[in-house]
Amino acid sequence: MTDVTQPEVETAELLSGQEIRTFSFEFCQSLLLQKFAKDLAAIGGPQAPGVRAKANSAAIELNASFTRHQRELLAAYSDGQISVLIFEGLQKINDVSPPNELPVLASLENHYDVLCLAARNQILLNLVDNSAFAYDMDNEGKLVRLVANFKGGGLNKIPTELDIKELSSHSGLALGPHTEAPYWCAVNAKDGHSPSPSSLILSALWNPGMEPTSVIPIPPVLEKIGVKNCLALTTGNFQFTRSDSFVSGKGEDGHNVSILEFDDKVGFTARFNSYRFSVNDNASDLVKSAFVALCQKVGESAPVEHTLTQESAMVINNVRALHCRDLIKDNRRVLVRLFGLSKFSSPIVITDDPLRLQG
Ligand SMILES: [Fe+2]
Fold it and tell me: How far is 211 from 305, CA to CA, in rounded Å?
């Protein structure tokens, strides 16, 4: 008996420790990636028509230079089997120190270095069979999201800071564990809503305080709460509040959604936000206690931290991992974020190039 069960136990332990993997670029490979990113930035980056196809071609060309081990890592992420893939060994975009104050959003959005990082993220998404996209009702419909303290909320006040802080990536407030909105469904479009982002990818333009990005893989949390609670979380007994990053007048609170969903292709998917989700008042006691157990175990989980710079990027599997952060201390910290749509996802497409989905 021992002979039969022992390897399975070891495999399970090994797998739970492999939720976060690192892909190391060799020098020649990262030079090639840099060249492609600069070419795409020169014609406008991810938002420009035609860049989608070029980013895909760049990924195909890069792929030809990868080793078997590198390809296996990309495939594991592409197949939805790991929570996070960290890309290391990337080239610096620009060595110049950040300015003394955070520039305004409009000037940064068209900054060549930002377009380079965004284009590089788009190619990296393609390497794991994800396509960069935007929702119509989020981030003004734009593919590139700059994560920085544009609206204050960090440790140090900015001159234009309002009393009420936005709970979004445009302010520096600490954010509890969450997956990215929208939360209606995770893989297949439902009731006129596209699924949640399959992935988000982040890199840093500036991170002078070396402030980390934190991730909590969900599989170990589900193992801790057990089968009965997991099943209760698949019922449509939960609600969420509207996100602050949505376009004014668009997006809404949601009702009667599940947190977990079984999916034929990826096994399970999750949607959760510790500061926006709640359980319906009329849910059963079993469902209510499952929600409490989930919140408790998420709260007890020690996040895995990674400090982003220009030389790294992290792609987070948004249906398998939560992310969170502490209060941002340095107002000059700027991350460049893109959403990715996996090969499994069936969204409602509004425009193909650039890819824009109905949220
Ligand atoms: Fe987030």
Answer: 9
